Amino acid sequence: MQLNALIVEDEYLAREELTYLIEKHSTINIVAAFDDGLDAFKFLQSNKVDVVFLDINVPSIDGMLLARNIAQFSHKPQIVFTTAYKEYAVDAFELEAVDYLLKPLNEQRVIGLLAKLQARAQEQEPPQVTTNIRSHTINLMLNNHIHVTAISDICCAIANEKVTHVYTAEGCFVAPITISELMLRLPTSDFFRCHRSYCININDVKEIIPWVNSTYMIKLAHVEPHIPVSRSNLKAFRCLMQL
């Protein structure tokens, strides 16, 4: 299985060195390289890759924030941090990074990492084949009845411990899964997790209201709750909504 990779690195020489080592020691295909976190985020919203090699100190959206947003994608690429900063290692592994490479890069460490990435890819089960209707619907509960709901009808979702309240124009339903598990079922092209406890259908956004601490409150077209945008997701939200 050939892996597709993205490099996010603002230093030209470091980017070139990493590209050289990847091409020399693996069959990984580098599909794109960016020197800006925001440009990389935009690319990843519409393009799937298997691995992201990510520097921490990049413009617009730093590597840690970009990794947190990548973690919300339904297709989660493996993350490898490449940085000169030791102090972010704990945060990186909390984000389930595969590895944390310190600059200057050690060629043997890179070789070991590339082998690990290939091995992990081979261990993964092939994707399950789903029918068209199941990939576009989700089962929600209301009064002990199961409602087969089109994913496109979801306006927003709000976490409530181990279940999630899901709002459509018809009312509030319950998904018997966490909001993180729900996000795996939702297409990242249409849904955005604007807060650890909230996600929205961006197609249902009617009004964006400036709020405290330079954040926003979102008013949706078909449901009543106003949805907050957390400060940690502010840059990604502005990019997404072209603010």
From TrEMBL:
Any one GO molecular function term: DNA binding
InterPro entries: CheY-like_superfamily, LytR-like, LytTR_DNA-bd_dom, Sig_transdc_resp-reg_receiver
Domain HTH LytTR-type residue range list: 138-243
Pfam families, A to Z: LytTR, Response_reg
Annotated positions of the 4-aspartylphosphate modification: 55
Keyword terms: DNA-binding, Phosphoprotein, Two-component regulatory system
PROSITE patterns: HTH_LYTTR, RESPONSE_REGULATORY
Lineage top rank: taxon: Bacteria
Domain Response regulatory: 4-118
Entry protein name: LytTR family DNA-binding domain-containing protein
Source species of the chain: Photobacterium piscicola
Higher taxonomy: Bacteria, Pseudomonadati, Pseudomonadota, Gammaproteobacteria, Vibrionales
